[in-house]
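Give me the fold.
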Amino acid sequence: MPLGFVKEGFPYAVGGNSEFAYHGLVKNLFLGVNAEYLQYLRKDNRFESLYGIASFGLVGYEFWGGISWHMQAVLYGGYQFGKLNGSVESTTYGYGVAMAGLRTVFDVSPRFGILVEGRYVFAMAGSTQISSAAATLGGLWRF
């Protein structure tokens, strides 16, 4: 949640992301970049809309891996920019974000896997600190 005063108006968000990572610099370590778009879902009519666009660097470590099942720890660091639209005026925002999570990957084929990730999110905008949780369900395509 980017702005503390709108927390009650937008309790949830949905979105999509893309991630590109290189696995193999060091055994079980991967480095990459991530970009995401979030559309916050409003609960009432106090504000019109809220969205965020973020870019992150990431580092991950595969701490357990079977033939088709993998467990990974991932750290993200980056920046989110967005816009809050009200009925009278709009404002833009930006802040730094750090995330830490655990991800599970189930390989459906040698090139495609199903990814499930839960993560803790810490954001800081000026003196405002925001903590939240996030989850991802998606596909992982290796090329």
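Residues 52 and 82 are 4 Å apart (CA to CA).
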